[in-house]
Amino acid sequence: MSSPADELGYGSIRLDRTGQAEAFDAIGDRYDEAFPHKEGQIAAAEWLIKSLPADSRVLDLGCGSGLPTARQVVEAGSQVVGVDLSAGMVALARQNVPAGDFRRADIADLRPGGPLDLGRFEAVTAFFSLLMLPRAEIPLALRTIHHLLLPGGLFALSMVEADVDDFSIPFIGNTIRVSGYLRDELREVVEAAGFEIAEESSFTYAPATADVPPEVQIFLRCRRQD
Ligand SMILES: C[S@@+](CC[C@H](N)C(=O)[O-])C[C@H]1O[C@@H](n2cnc3c(N)ncnc32)[C@H](O)[C@@H]1O
């Protein structure tokens, strides 16, 4: 008999995270210096926060340093659970947002039947974190988020528009592997995982570092369907 994890398709995938956490351990708070303008991210989180009942639980997937999103959630009066693969980022998040609950874990650990059961959430954010997965895993991560949300729950996602799969790039003095989609395909992948896209916005963004080229950032505001 297949386990719930196998039902999502994780059973057939070998997870390869080589170098990903190490890169973010090394980058630390230089990430926030390289990406100082977070207006799009703040607006997407604000959309989600303002619809939440008091004392809601929000999961921030790939929370990084906890800035700005986990802090924004806490300051709005909700509870935040942040998950990140990088121990260094989790340590920064604990410093930056003492009221948050931060775990060093892999997004894949949260899959149905996986090793980390955090319960269900009113909302989930995943800002520039699903792009750290190979394309084969992104639909599985989205189904995992669907599973982690209460019915009608809200999900804010950002990705960089790019037609790439598990592609190595230089990033703030390190190398990371990233994936992405062109806009229409991203919408299709998100909708196929059981989300209605309520709003979309995009920005051309020039990071404040020479080794990350200008990028188009896409923000989707989504609601769990069914
Ligand atoms: C580009 S940063 C974005 C950080 C934060 N969400 C923000 O927007 O400021 C991506 C984050 O995802 C984390 N990450 C990468 N792969 C992950 C995985 N498989 N599971 C959990 N976190 C992961 C990295 O350690 C890093 O902190």
Can you put this structure into words, describing what you see?
This protein has about 230 residues and is α/β, with parallel strands linked by helices. It has a single domain, classed as Rossmann fold (3-Layer(aba) Sandwich). Helices cover about 30% and strands about 30% of the residues. The chain is built from 8 helices and 9 strands. A 7-stranded mixed sheet has the order 3-2-1-4-5-9-8, with helices on both faces. It has a two-stranded antiparallel ribbon with strand order 6-7. The model has no long low-confidence stretch (mean pLDDT about 95). The site of S-adenosylmethionine has 20 residues, from α2 and β2.
Provide the fold topology.
Blueprint: H1 4-8, H2 20-27, H3 30-34, H4 39-50, E1 57-61, H5 69-75, E2 79-84, H6 87-96, E3 101-104, E4 121-127, H7 138-148, E5 149-160, E6 167-171, E7 174-178, H8 183-192, E8 195-205, E9 215-224
Parallel strand pairs: 1-2, 1-4, 2-3, 4-5
Antiparallel strand pairs: 5-9, 6-7, 8-9
S-adenosylmethionine binds next to helix 2 and strand 2.
Order of helices and strands: HHHHEHEHEEHEEEHEE
Distance between the termini: 26 Å
Query: Major beta sheet, specifics?
Result: 7 strands, mixed
Instruction: State which percent range the strand residues make up.
Output: 25-35%
Q: Give the % helix.
A: 25-40%
CATH topology-level fold name:
Rossmann fold
**Averaged pLDDT:** 93
Rg on CA atoms, Å: 16 Å
What strand line-up does the widest sheet have?
3-2-1-4-5-9-8
